Structures are given as structure tokens and as C-alpha cells.
Structures
1.
Amino acid sequence: MVVDREHLVRLERRTTRRLQRAKLKQPACVEDVNYRHPRGLDRKVFTELATCRWINAKRNVIITGATGLGKTWLACALANKACREGFTTLYARVPRLVDELSAARADGTYLKFLARLERIDMLLLDDWAITPLDRQAQQDLLEVIDDRAGQRSTLVTSQMPVSKWHDTLGDPTVADAILDRILGTATKIQLKTGPSMRGGQTLASEEQ
């Protein structure tokens, strides 16, 4: 019993460290997902993603839909589950990430930063394609995605439908390269328009 207790304590500590390093924006759990909200979330698809088999398979996930439908919450719930299953995760807003990559290039830590991102089992890229990116930002994003393609899993959330990503990413050649690496193995969740979930709601414990 003492040995089992020590083993459980160590597992809990490791999980806590993974969650702290993930820097998730919201304290979400897959157990609290609200399937009754009329946003079109497929229970079967999401519960399969919650098994984390897609991470073992080095596949990607894309969640799109209007603001207020819980995209970030759902993504953080999957990241939380990944941490509990022993995977490393990291939350990053794309606009801030490209700024961090630019700063890393300026201070000489660019390659080290890329290597760190490459090792993350599941990288959560939030607010994808909400603003146009300049040429250097496009190239930086391609470096991140290319390093991970087929090696690690990436989860992307965006207000923009996938059909509009190409134009937002800018340079057609870079856009083609980025989208080919993300979309090729992605499970897509397209949330429908519905009542905003921000500020709490009464159908379940999920909150924005």
C-alpha cells in the first residue's frame, strides 16, 4: 500500500507539472463538456478525441466556429486530458507566438525555441488566421508546422472557416505548404452558429 501510494503521488506530481507547463488559457476538462448546446458538437467525435489516440497517431485537430461557441475551452479540455494521459502540451495564441518567434530571432534563441516547440507532444495554436501575417511571420509559422508534421500533433482553433485560411496566410506558396501539413491528417470540428457561451450558461458546467 505504501509503494502504491508513493507511485500515485509521483504520477500526480508529474501531471501537475505538465499542466503548469502547458499554460492553458482555461481550466477545462473533457468530463464537463456541454453536448446539449446547439453548436453542433458531435459527441462521438469529441469523445474519441478525448482518448488521445490521435496524439499517439501524430494526427492533428482543427476546431472552427464563431466567437463565443467554446472553441478555446474545448481545445483546452483536450489539452488537459492529454496532460493527464502523460503527454506534454503547450497553449499558444498565434499572434503572440509569431511575436515570440521574432523576438527569439533577435536575441539569438530562435533555433532553441523551435526545438522546444518541436518536442511538445500536442501544441495548441489558438486564434489561427484571425489577422494577416507578414512574410517573415508566415515563414516562422511554416518552420513550426514543418518541424512537427508527421512527428507531433497540433490542435488549431480559428474563427475563420478553413476555406478562408489560404487567403489570410498570405503568400500562396507558403500557405500551400502550411495547410498541406496541417490539413492532411486533421480531424475537423466545425461548430455551428448558436447562443454565446461566454459568461456562463445553465445547461452544464462548461464555462467560457
Note: The two ends are 40 Å apart (CA to CA).
2.
Amino acid sequence: MWFVVIGVLMILLKVGEIGPVAQWSWWLVLAPFPLATIWWAFADKFGYTQREAMRRMDQKKDARRQKALEALGQGDKSKRRR
């Protein structure tokens, strides 16, 4: 995602003729887009994307479980009175 953002910013700087980017070759300005494609292919091939999705899903499940336990009065055991 960062490669795409950087690529769009570089295009805007090139078209707007702002800063040193205005003097750069179009090949250099457009380079972040193939890099983004390579990163996404690499991340998908080696399971990074799926692991991140599973990690986020586990965090949501844990938060839901904790909220349900607190609603039942059985939340964090260190907070309960004995």
C-alpha cells in the first residue's frame, strides 16, 4: 500500500513540476507501482496476507469474548472482588 501512495505522490510532484522530482525520469517516478505489484505477489505467495487477516480476526474474536465476559460479570479476574 505504501508503494502505491508514494507512487501517486511522485506522479503529482512530477506533473506539478515541484521539487527535484520534476527533473526525474518517468521511469523512476513510476517505479513504485511495479514494486507494489512485486510486494503483493510476494506477500500472497508466502502467506503474509492471510496471516495478517487471521491475526486481525483473532483480535476481534478476543475483544468480543472479553466484552461478553465483562457483560456477564466474569471479566478480568484481577478486577473482581473476592
Note: Residues 2-71 form one domain.
3.
Amino acid sequence: MEHSKITRLKLKNFTAFEELDMEFSPGINIFIGDNGTGKTHLLKLLYCISKNTTEIVNNNSGEFEKSLVDIFLPYERQFGRLRNNKIEIGNTKNNELRADLTFKFNDSNPSLSFYIHNSNRLLVSSNLGGHNYEVFNSVYIPVKEFLENAPGFLSLYDKREISFDKTYADILYSSFLPKKRSLSKIQENILDEISKIIGGRIISIRENFFLEDKEGLQTEFTLLAEGWRKLALLWLLIQNGSLFEEDSILFWDEPEANLNPKMKRLIIEILLELQKNGVQIFLATHDYVILKEFDLQKKSKDKIKFFSLYRDNEKTIQCKSSDDYLMIEPNLIQETFLDIYDRDIERALKSIGRGK
């Protein structure tokens, strides 16, 4: 099987973005930025494209458009609402919504594009046909851990219109996959490390997930801390092979959510191990500890790229990137952390002065 990585994304008039051009690492790609700068939109778009490359290759634009709508949930499922809301729809010269994605496969750079121009009809073009590298094993982990909501959700989602985007259904489908017949030593080691922290292994009974300890005691996920459930999700995805394959791409929105800071070190260790084994990773974070753990744990062979999304003086979203944590600009997360540190020192000095 031939595999590829996502190498470049160019956007025009898509949701919050007027124009954007990003070149990605084959390893870990980290999006930071203020609220409203489009980090989650980038994750969802990249996930949707990688999840639907087969439909794109077969020129099934209708199925791809449905997937975009299912993931972004625009009002009344109108695909045209994914245009940047700053543009004038009547201006046919400038109102085109467009996305261009490039992959890396051996010495070639296959690409795909989708766009809408005057109408709200989605048009797709690509040069991916005739190869197997269009098949990705894509996993998207939403901000909210969702395994506790598993019982009955998938059957409800398939039959009713409910306001949950498709990433929630997809992560459950991935979680319910059975264990792989054989696991590598590295996979076994990661599973053991997670099991030590959460105190057991994960089982499912009639769509309910349980943590089972060494004595066989089973605790339902509704009674577990959300941070443990997040680690349990990783345990499942690694155990069933959804993560840890060379064709795997992981998209993770705010991995720090509901995690105690001491657990974040293990999360970064796992992510670095995944990229060493061929998994491409895209994540969005607001967390200083997550960023600093990447900085402290990174080795020379690790492939990590940071993307800082920000608004310029015209309120247009721009992006700067760096392979070096210290060169991220702007870095609102670090600036805020340093501001808190300075204020804490200032208060301590004032307290000492009053004591005198």
C-alpha cells in the first residue's frame, strides 16, 4: 500500500479565512492563536478532505459536499454559508470559495481542489486517480470526550437530525473497532503506560465502555473522570490500530481539555512516539504546558512545526510558522504565561516591602 502525507493547504474565502497558505510537517503540526482565528476550522477541513479522498478521486462531489456540511453544520445545511462572511456574494470576481491541498508521495506531489463560484454548487478536481495513496486512516478527536455518550448515539445519529457534527459519530465508530490481532512492542509499551495511570484496560459491553482493573472490577465511563476517559480513548485507538499505522492522520482539538498538567507529559510522549512511527498529527491548543512539553521533549529527529494564527490590523487572519518553539510569533500563550509570572513576582515584592 502506498502512503502519503498532507504537505500544503491553500484557502480562499473559506469560513474565517480570506486567504491562507500553509506548508505542513510530515510529523506534528501545532496550531495556536486567539479564539476565533480558525484553528478548529482548519482541523475539520483537513480531516474532512483526508476522510473523503476516495469520493474526491471518483469525482463524487455530492458525497464530499455532504461530508463538509455534516462536519461544519452550517445553518439549514447550506454549503454556501461556508464562504467567508466578509465578501460580497454579488461580486462574482472575488466571491469564489476555494481550497487546494497538496500531498507528498515518493517523488510526486498529487493535489486536489474544491471550490464554489457563482452558485452554491461544489466542484471538485484532483490528480489522485489511479493510485492507492488516496486512502487515509483519519481520526478526529473533538474537544469534548464522547465515549460516555456512546450508548445509543450512533443509531440515533444515523436516523435523526441532531445537532452534533459528524466528528462525534466518527470517533465512536473508530473506538468500537475490535483489537488488532498483533501489536508491536512499542504499541504494547504505550498501552501499558496508559493502563498504569488509569488503572486497567478498556472494554465495551453493548455500546457501554468500562474500565476494568486487574481484579476484574468494572467501572462505567459515566463514573470516570473525563481526563481518564481521554487517556482511555487513546488506549482504544492504539489498541485497535486506528492510530499507529503509516497511513494514519490524527486531528486533535485541544488535547489539554480536562487533563491534569502531570498527565500532559505522557500525552506528548505518546504523540511524539506516534509521529516517529509514521503518524501525521494536527492539533490545536491554548495550553502553555502542552507547548512547553513539546519544546522540552523534542529530539533532533522529531518533525514538529508550530503555526501561529492571528488577526492583522485589518482584522484579517494571517499565519506565521516555525520549526522552533522559541521563534513562534506571535505567541499569545507564552505572553500570557509570562504576564502572570511577572504579576506574581510583583505582588511578592510588594508584600516583602510592606513587611519591612
Note: The CA atoms of residues 55 and 64 lie 6 Å apart.
